[in-house]
Amino acid sequence: QVQLVESGGGLVQAGGSLRLSCAASGTIFSINTMGWYRQAPGKQRELVATITRGGITNYADSVKGRFTISRDNTKNTVYLQMNSLKPEDTSIYYCYADTSTTPKRNYWGQGTQVTVSS
User: What dihedral angle (degrees, nearest 10) is formed by the CA atoms of 32, 19, 37, 111?
Assistant: First the structure.
């Protein structure tokens, strides 16, 4: 099994930046894709960005050009650099990981709050 712990959330003014981190532990050798999702009150959880073990990235259209996802496989950690933040980015951000095992397994962190004031 895999455990995910997020950090780096907080309160920032519009136009500011935050850097989120997610550290994985457990059977980390099996991890394939890692990423970030977010969920605001009354909204469905949505994909923000993902990155494969090989470094292939995918971004939601709403964050392209503003957010950058990266990972350090030696530290079992994924990062989300968030620049030019907007009030609509306010949400709880959840770390995600899936495995290359059969069957595939999905794991979620507990979430970290990001609040962007206008």
Answer: 100
